[in-house]
Amino acid sequence: MAVANQKGGVGKTTTVMNLGAALAERGAQVLVIDLDPQSNSTSGLGIDPSRARLTTYQLLSGEASIDEVATPTAVPGLHVVPSQVALVGAEIELVNQEDREGRLRRALAALTGGFGYVLIDCPPSLGLLTLNALAAADEALVPLQAEYFALEGLAHLLYTIQLVRMNLNPKLTLAGILINQFDARTTLSWDVLNEIRRVYPDRLLQTLIPRNVRVSEASSHGQPVTVYDPSCRGAQAFRQLAEEVMSR
Amino acid sequence: MAVANQKGGVGKTTTVMNLGAALAERGAQVLVIDLDPQSNSTSGLGIDPSRARLTTYQLLSGEASIDEVATPTAVPGLHVVPSQVALVGAEIELVNQEDREGRLRRALAALTGGFGYVLIDCPPSLGLLTLNALAAADEALVPLQAEYFALEGLAHLLYTIQLVRMNLNPKLTLAGILINQFDARTTLSWDVLNEIRRVYPDRLLQTLIPRNVRVSEASSHGQPVTVYDPSCRGAQAFRQLAEEVMSR
Ligand SMILES: Nc1ncnc2c1ncn2[C@@H]1O[C@H](COP(=O)(O)OP(=O)(O)OP(=O)(O)O)[C@@H](O)[C@H]1O
Ligand SMILES: Nc1ncnc2c1ncn2[C@@H]1O[C@H](COP(=O)(O)OP(=O)(O)OP(=O)(O)O)[C@@H](O)[C@H]1O
Ligand SMILES: [Mg+2]
Ligand SMILES: [Mg+2]
Known about the structure:
Two copies of one chain form a homodimer. By secondary structure, chain A is of the alpha/beta class. Chain A has helices at about 10-25, 40-45, 55-60, 65-70, 85-95, 105-110, 130-135, 150, 155-165, 185-200, 215-220, 225-230, 235-245, and strands at about 1-5, 30-35, 70, 80, 115-120, 140-145, 175-180, 205-210. The interface of A and B includes residues 39 and 216 of A. One magnesium ion binds next to helix 1 of chain A.
């Protein structure tokens, strides 16, 4: 599952980390792939990006296999392929290469199994790294902030997903649109939710993730919110999301 | 002034729009350049990106001059060079071109004057579009969310600004780090503020921009917050920022 949106700060990393942890909690084996040079999902899961020997960069360049780069986290059942800033270089190097959008798909084809879910954290752009994720994934999950600017880019993102399905990856479907940082006290949040219900009624996931400071505090402790504060509203919402994803 | 940060959603567009409007309110002539293919500062200032005839794309490719692309907004004294999704193509086309980082600087050199401030809204990456902005600008302003992930990429961003100063643009200085979406009720916001005060004491701007829903509501109305709700805390904070920028 590729978690993508070119709009920045909508909660791609937060969704990958916490959905991943909630799925693992229910007994699934989960692999998170950090495809963002910012390496937020790497550090958010407690791994120091600067100490990682093998990263997504080596995976895309073919120097290392997926089994070599997958690193265990403190959460049982949750592994991560860490990234580093050097991944920025990969995007430029890929531009003039053969099958540049298919690198990640080929690397994942070597997965020997055992992972029930693979969640890919994408950078805030629709460049080659995100295209690699969409070409490799079975489905795309689109986190959306309950804000105006996040609505603006949505049509273009859904169009890009369709283009990838037609030209690169016929099995790619849209898992759904996930409303994140929903603040029930503001009319803006309700306006955005109602707009999505009106325009994309059948693509909206049931689960709404509330804005909850415990979610962002958890990241600064290198833990998913389900571990950092298991009974808070954020943790409960991500568990509900895991349930919704598992029962699709 | 290039407003840049590769971390997404920190408030680059919000800062460019509202600082621009607050400077114009004090009588300055301001030009906003939308260098982000998402064209949020274009639509945030009430201009429909799809109807713009000439955009940042034509400016970078040399097809049009800066005086031809600058478009007036509803705010007196505030003009904008609009962008469109097609700008994504410019980043790929520039990769193999001569002087690829200096395109914007050359285009701005033709400015016949009259603008006291030029604010450049950058996309959430450190790719060629942002490098063009840093190579053309006299100073860089770095908005930062009072959140953990925003802290993580800061050192790398400041290092990139130094590299640009050494190799591309010796006049580039750091205007400062602007804390945005500060929520005084959360310890996370205070932790981030104290961390910045400790690590970068002389680079932190005095003005703190609070999280204020009127700021994001304003964008959905295509207006700066100083016009949408002139007496709210967000509008006051951006006026204070304009004062701080003018008196530097
Ligand atoms: N539901 C939530 N409640 C509170 N804070 C949240 C929530 N979701 C995300 N955040 C915070 O908002 C910020 C942006 O989220 P995040 O970094 O996950 O977005 P992103 O889409 O991955 O950003 P980028 O585009 O830079 O990759 C982070 O600091 C995160 O901790
Ligand atoms: N001080 C604030 N108070 C309330 N909302 C804010 C504030 N600053 C920004 N926002 C909202 O947060 C969201 C992210 O801000 P914005 O789009 O300006 O960030 P950005 O850095 O330009 O994002 P991108 O990386 O996608 O270009 C927007 O919906 C905006 O309206
Ligand atoms: Mg992220
Ligand atoms: Mg922006």
